[in-house]
Every structure is written in C-alpha cells, then in structure tokens.
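Hello forum,

I keep getting stuck at the same step: I have a sequence, I want structure tokens, and every attempt I make locally crashes halfway through. Rather than fight my setup again tonight, could one of you with a working pipeline run this one for me? It's a single chain of 324 residues.
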Amino acid sequence: SFNTFAEGNGVFRRGLIYDGHPEWQAVNYVPGRGLMPQLEIPDKKVLFANPALSAVQDHEIAIFKEVAQKYDFDGLLLDRGRYDNIQSDFSDFSRREFEAYIGKKLDRFPEDVYAWEEDGDGGWRRIDGPYFKQWIEWRASVIYNFFKRTKEELKAVKPGLKFGAYTGAWYPSYFEVGVNWASNTYDPSQDFAWATPEYKNYGYAELLDIFTNGNYYWNVTVDEYRRSNGLHKNETDSEMSKGDHLSVEGGCRYSRRLLGGRPFFGGMYVEDYKRDTTQFKRAVEMNLRESDGLMMFDIVHIINRDWWGPLQRAVSAYEAEAKQ
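Reply #2:
Ran it on my machine without issues. Output:
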C-alpha cells in the first residue's frame, strides 16, 4: 500500500516537499487567507503534492514500478491517490491546465471556480462560481488519467500484479478530493448538483482489480444512523453531511450500487470503536456481511489494544452465520 500524493510530514517537517521538491507542493485556497502554498499553512500535518504535475506523477509511478520489479508480492494498493481537499490545488500550473481543458481563459481566479464567504457564525461557506462543476470534472480527469497510466505501466513490468485503490466510502462528498471511484456506468449528474454529465467518464472502478472503501462510522446499521442526529463530517469533508451511507451497513450497500456490483472490501477504522469492543465486533461482522472482505485500518490499533480476541470472535460469528 502506498501513501501516494502525501509527500510531506508537517509534524517532523520531512518528505520531498521539505527536502528537495518544494515546487511540487500544492497551493490551497484557504478561507480568509487566500492562496497559500502548503508549507505556509500553519499546523498542517500532511502536505500534498499537486497531482496534476507531470513530475509528481512520474515520481510516484517510478516508485511503484521499482517496487514491482524488485519484490515479489500480489498487489499494489494506492491510498491518498487524490487531492488534499476542496481547497487544493489552485497553483498557476493548475489554472493553466484547467483553462486548456475548458478552452477558455478565466477572468477571475479562483473566484470563477468558487469563493469563500463568511457565514456570520464565525465560519465560512463556499459560493460556487460559473466554472465550479467543470473544475470538479477536470480534477476527476487528472486522477483518472493518473490511475489509468499507473495501471498500464505496472502491468507492463508485472502483468499478473493486482492494482487497486483505497478511498473513503462517502461518495456524495468525495468529489471534493478529485476522485470518482464509482463505475463509469453510474451517472452522478442524475443525483448531485456538483456533477456534470461528463463526470461519469472519469469513474475509475473498471481500472481496478482491488477496491476497499473506508466505512469510518460509529453507527453500524442504517437504523442506528437514523436514530442519531444524522450529521457527520468525514476526514476529507469541508462541511457536515447527511445520508444513510454514513453507517457501515449503508456505506457498503451504497458502494455496491455505485460499483455496479464489482467486488470490494469493506474498510473500517479501529479507533472509531475504542470505547466499545461490542460495537467493534458488530462493525467487523457488518463489513464481512455486506462486502466481499474486510480491510482493517490500522493493524497497530489491534496490536496496541490486544483486540485479537474480539476480532477472532467477530470473524467466527460471521463465518457461523454464513454457513447457515
């Protein structure tokens, strides 16, 4: 598994963005502060490179290929194969690439994409500009084309290698990081105002041999979610969201539909359940029941908490149920 475009650790101040390629850093559009290179954003823990830069893509793919050639393993999974968040990347390079994509020069940048406006409660709201939807489409095309190229180059050096990705399960807001992980047969423009009819062309599910989603929710069942206050903010989100998919059961079922029935592994974050081993066990069983396997993030939490027993009991309970 590779932490793909995250090329800087802000805690230890190390990584390629610090140590050799500051020109690779993304430029974020920060509310109230304007355009800021990531090295200038206070207390930023994970710094992203700009995925649109050809030098960045060349570097990432070169690492993947080197590892594939030197070591014997079954598959390669891309984590953080995405943009940092909705604020990223507003560099001069990305502006030029986007203008070339739409065939038009922007008069006001980044305001023609969107602007930040104070909401009166000490926060900020995004005001979408005339080219917002095309910007979302273009970013998805950047990530799609990177994945397509990565797969082709990896298969050329190791044909039997499985190629996959790991994303958040929260599809309705995952456009904020430039990723369309759905099947290209699904048209999100029928369901969401942010999607163009062309957005579906950059669904990358068909490129993958392996996919795992992150069902990072305390609520295991849809009924539990509906009994909660309904509001949830995922790691990559700019604002709160609602929906049945914000539960382990709902996230898996929604993923199944968006993927067109393609197999996937339900993912979970162990620390979501640090207060309750029973809820942890239920989440394990639900992921196994509603997906094609289980991805656990991260094994260190199982080790540190010595949760091998609860994990084994959860898997055994699912296996017993599946035999009935």
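The chain is about 35% helix and 15% strand. If your local run keeps crashing, start a new thread with the error log.
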